[in-house]
Batch of 2 targets.
Target 1
Amino acid sequence: MYTFGLIGYPIKHSLSPWIHTTFLEQKNLKGTYELFEVSPQESIEQKLQTLKDKGVQGCNVTVPYKETVLPYLDVVDESAVEIGAINTIVFKNGKTYGYNTDGKGYVRSLETSFPGVFTPSLRILLIGAGGAARGIYRALLDKGCKEVSIANRTLSTAESIREINQTETKSMIMSLEEAEEQLASYDVVIQTTSVGMKPHEEQSILSLNNIRQGTIVSDIVYQPIETSFLREAAARQCQVHYGHTMLLYQAQYAFELWTGTKPEIGTMDEQLQHILEGK
Ligand code: ATR
């Protein structure tokens, strides 16, 4: 009998219980996925101890604890240390192990939608330089991408992401205005900021005026599924990649860490789309 769950605040509307319960059923495993809400008045360290004592095997971590949980873990995966954030914890033999599956999940979702996308000459532009961008940047480096440039409103934050790069991968840092001008140079454009998220659906981080037809345009925002950014991309004959798929694949990695088995995503993509459209 497995017990998994989610640490965060507020988390009442999380989609993770649906995703992990579906995985458990698919794998014929008995278990539950609970919401372990930790209010700002509570101690995250104490919560981890309580979960350990309860015999929980694994949990996800979301806002606002992704960074603050780090010092309380026994072992932290090297890429999660570099990203500076955790989204998955494994409880095993009395110890806590921290991982970050967001970036890896993103890369897997992109590769599933566009098999063979990671060619040696691929030129990628990342828009935004927050926690999500950090995870995706690291995962793209691990994938061996040769060019991953970063555009951000604040250039110094983009510079600090580039410090993760110990490889030969080329990374240019640019403003959002420069990115708008240079869009035609990129094969994949990944929007990682919260701009365009409900209730500000009408907003878009930049104009796609100069983008080439056929460019893969991705947005990690999934509420709404079709953001203004992706709508403009589709209108300009680009290939679009939706944010909710990242949610499924980061969960798939977490489930693998907890149970040692890899669930299939299959039709969960369409099912999740329906759930989100009904929200
Ligand atoms: P997360 O950790 O979820 O990725 P975050 O750390 O809040 O979120 O990161 C937010 C990202 O969105 C940053 O790149 C931020 O730009 P700055 O570094 O300049 O703050 C970007 N962002 C948020 N709101 C924005 C806006 N209105 N215009 C431009 N960029 C914005």
Note: The chain has a mean pLDDT of 97.
Target 2
Amino acid sequence: MDPFLLAGARETADATIPVLDKHRGTPLAEVARADAGHFDRALRAADGARSAMASLRPDERAGVLEQARSRLGERRDALVELLVAEGGKPVRAARVEVDRTLTTFAVSAREALAAADEPVSLGDASGQARGYAARVRRVPIGVAGFITPFNFPLNLVAHKVAPAVAAGCPFVLKPASSTPLSALAIGEALLDAGLPEGAFSVLPARGPVAEVLGTDDRVRKLSFTGSDAVGWRLAQLAWRKRVTLELGGNAAVVVDGTADLDDAAARITNAAFGQAGQSCISVQRIVATADVADALRERLVERAREVRAGDPRDEETLVGPMINEREAERVLAWVDEAVAGGATVLAGGERDGAVVQATLLEGAAPGSRVLDDEVFGPVATLVRVPDFEAALREVNRSRYGLQAGVFTADRSRAARAFDVLEVGGVVIGDVPTWRAEAMPYGGVKDSGVGREGPRYAIEALTEPRLLVERT
Ligand code: NAD
């Protein structure tokens, strides 16, 4: 049995979670499964570590993060194999995720060092503040509760854990049950890295057991990444806490008549089908203006048909298995439903076990799930619109709003898109799937609340404390 990490120490339990190799279907590990009692002990330890964590100097926090980063870096090849095995992630995508994880730690270390009191301008129109000076310090909020999804099991854990260390917050993290090994690898890298006793726990568990992170008063901040159904429910339970929700999406990309179509088609193909579309900012809706829709369609069909699906250990594979076969069945049921409603399959549309072919559709009726819900699979739908303004309206016709991509060479259209798109981020000249670790990342509408990216996550894990001095 692989142990979990409770209060900074390895521990086993009576129950386990089986972890499978997602492509081979073979057992990979049996991981200790935490119950309510383990969470209680973890929270007690984290609560007890609050002041020790808060007392770490910025250079000490950065030192912990650098130490963890270098340990993870030494294990790079093993971590790539782990992502391929437990996540079914194609090996090229797995390498990118490991490198991004190292960057997340590096950026968090840099942010830890940048912490400093900020002077406050008191404004003196009435004369009331004359003779006073003020500054603000960001102080750690206290214990953080983290819940993470399966699709980036390493880097999305890093995006919670590394800012928590930088901010000085003890934490308890529950990783996705299908991919707990990556989170435990990050926990292992933090062992003996200089954190106070009991400061952190990584506890694989059944979902509902982790609801305590939303209800327990010792947790001051809940940060959840996952589906909107689970996220909003947890936010309701956590009504007394600060909450960050990084939820799903049905990201759109706009292509207009001024775009380089070969470049757009190549990028869209990767972003729609890469890692089987199991990314919250995977391209799901391809919105093309009428003047280029046919030409773009031709290029997309050609590329989609060439996409390699199957063995994630094959260097050429873009589409690996979905997280389980049930998900693959669901995705094809949505495709069938769209076809019954009038859509045409331009490429793909079939599956072999958990592997769904890169599937391109057009003509789906508004309201069909492939357009309006989150497919979270290798399925994208081409949508024709008369002009650029209609394209922007189409992007906004969604209950989600994470990121949007716009391929246009027209600067005024780019500016217009930035003005009106209801999303957390607009990417001009590339797909909505583009992300750098340091940027603010998160959504509006059903895509969530709050932002990640170390600087923004640290802000959400700290409270401003004001000092006023009569001078
Ligand atoms: P999920 O919502 O099923 O699970 C997410 C986590 O919540 C898992 O650890 C799960 O065990 C846990 N969970 C489930 N029920 C729970 C409960 N009642 N109480 C507490 N925890 C519970 O999501 P998933 O299938 O793992 O991940 C896919 C989803 O995540 C997609 O919707 C995707 O868009 C979203 N996602 C969002 C982002 C982002 O940054 N916005 C990034 C990656 C994934």
Note: The chain has a mean pLDDT of 98.
